[in-house]
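User: Okay, second chain of the day. Same drill as before: sequence in, structure tokens out.
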Amino acid sequence: MIGKPEKIPFDVGTFRIVPFYVPHDGCPCYAYIISHPECGNIIYATDMSRIAQVDENYHLKMTDGKPVDWSFKNLRLSHMIIEANYDFSDFADIDEFKRSHVGFGHHSLQQCKRFIEENKTPDLRNVILVHLSKDTDEENIRSQVQSVAGKWVNVEIAEKGFRCELSKYPF
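Assistant: Same drill. Structure tokens below.
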């Protein structure tokens, strides 16, 4: 294993990868922007409370009392591999410990939808949902994400053995 510094691009074959820190309940976690000439730009983001900017001490950057989320619209993402761990509307049925852990350590369906809405462009081909809680209604989550992503975007839930074509072009 080779450690790589945050926000500094590095190459693996023809892939260019940029790691960046994402908050996750006090644990260091990273998301990645991955670029490839045939795939386009991909974001891989899981095990985080949100895709937000942090300061040099890894505290959330805030503006008007709200976290400052990263924006990737200018990258024209082709694929999003992103966590949608739980649905806020299911919170009434879980205990306080799990509510705290999930709420501060995992990306909700609502945050996922907001991220897609704010970063989608006509280049978006796939949204692949990962790290769903076993207690979630997968079809409900998939259909809600589909409604935000748009009818021309393939929305799938990754499970063991899942495969998806990550092409930059739709044909």
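The mean pLDDT is 86.

User: Thanks, on to the next one.
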